[in-house]
Design a protein that fits this description.
The chain is an alpha+beta fold. 45% of the residues lie in helices and 22% in strands.
């Protein structure tokens, strides 16, 4: 059965933009970080896809004593693997539409302790990204905004690489420009996407080689979560000073549209 474009877009976002957040969460949440201090394992998440060479797509992590490497490709012999039966099954699982037939095949019970810890990180990621209200404590707010920024910048870049019509048209017509996401007084909570002549690259942290062409800047974490969680209105937030568009509102509307697209594909 041929996949819809939407299914393939969602799959790419989950594998190459959302799942890499596991590294961020495992490093930023002390209770989870501790669980990987003595872990040495290659962990893969994949799904079967008869339409691609090899019949399978996925990504993997290499974990060594709490140090994580993220690889957006398959590896031959992972110690642990969560393998879904189809693109759609993986998408449904990470959207929260879990059915008995959609549970992944799990390999690597020999590494049961690390497997359980990994699942705990996945559950934390699902809890964060699936929240409908902002968290109460400052540390979790910071982590959630960071995850959203990383997801959005990487997601836009991944869709561009897949030839998403609107995003590809935007990058193809663009000179070398950097679009950034930022929160005042939180330089560690920032991300960017650099585009030029059809190519794109997402980055974490501040872009320091030059002033970004456009920055979507929030005055605090609560203001950021208001927009990122679709609680606040972008126009009202701009009027009230909770959101500042450094570079022109027309670019803010464009980025806002892409943000909504990523959100729709991930839910």
């Amino acid at each position: 059965m041929a996949h819809t474009k939407e299914a393939l877009y969602s799959n790419k976002i989950f594998l190459n933009a959302a799942l890499p957040l596991v590294k961020v969460i495992a490093n930023d949440v002390p209770s989870l970080k501790k669980k990987f201090e003595n872990a040495h394992a290659v962990i893969q998440v994949s799904c079967l896809d008869p339409d691609v060479e090899g019949g399978k797509v996925g990504m993997h992590f290499v974990v060594n004593s709490g140090e994580w490497l993220v690889h957006t490709c398959l590896t031959e012999d992972p110690h642990i693997e969560l393998e879904f039966k189809s693109v759609e099954a993986l998408n449904d699982f990470f959207k929260g539409n879990i059915t008995l037939g959609g549970i992944p095949k799990i390999r690597g019970l020999k590494y049961a302790g690390t497997l359980v810890s990994f699942v705990m990180v996945l559950l934390k990621m699902a809890d964060l990204l699936g929240a409908t209200e902002p968290p109460k404590d400052e540390e979790t707010k910071e982590l959630l905004v960071k995850c959203y920024f990383y997801l959005l910048s990487s997601g836009i870049s991944q869709l561009n690489k897949m030839g998403h019509p609107e995003i590809k048209d935007w990058t193809t017509k663009s000179p070398d420009r950097v679009y950034a996401f930022a929160v005042d007084n939180y330089p560690q909570v920032s991300a960017f996407i650099r585009i030029k002549a059809g190519k794109s690259r997402a980055g974490r942290g501040e872009y320091k080689r030059a002033m970004p062409f456009f920055t979507l800047r929030f005055n605090n974490l609560d203001s950021a979560l208001g927009i990122l969680m679709s609680i606040d209105d972008m126009l009202e937030a701009t009027k009230a000073g909770r959101l500042v568009m450094d570079g022109g509102p027309e670019f803010g509307a464009q980025i806002g549209g892409f943000m909504l697209e990523i959100g729709a594909l991930a839910k």
